[in-house]
Amino acid sequence: MATSIEEVTWEVLEQLLSHGLAFTALDVSNAVLWRRPATEHEAVARVVRDLFDDGKLQGYTRTAIEVVADGNRPARATLYHREGDDPDAVYGSAQREQLATLPHPRQSREPG
After folding, report:
1. Over the stretch 51-82, which tens digit does the pLDDT of each residue have?
2. 91: which DSSP letter?
3. Closest listed residue to residue 38, CA positions, set 16, 8, 68, 15
4. Domain ranges in the chain?
5. Of the given ranges (14-18, 68-72, 86-90, 99-103), which has the lowest mean pLDDT?
6. Do the beta carbons of residue 79 and residue 65 sit within 8 Å?
7. How many other C-beta atoms can be found within 10 angstroms of the C-beta atom of residue 27?
8. Is residue 49 classed exposed, middle or buried when 0-12, 13-18 and 19+ CB atoms within 10 A define those classes?
């Protein structure tokens, strides 16, 4: 079973990619937190960016989108989506307003 941030992040990405789903690093981070509760979002975001930059997300491109951070603050995020997909059509307003999953309170914070 995968245990490192890189391994768990890649497993989550493989699932998203195999279904052709659009995602942000927050989507990936929220899924990673189910298996690694003390993982920092920024560590996951860095792995996602690195994998994209290394050409591992074949058939995908990225687009800057507007999201809602902290439940009420406009922010920018990077949407990873299949080449040719319309970002607005594949990633709706409910997804753009999601909140980060919080680490389990009894877990100690692990460095990224």
Report:
1. 999 999 999 999 999 888 777 788 889 999 99
2. S
3. 8
4. 5-96
5. 99-103
6. yes
7. 22
8. middle
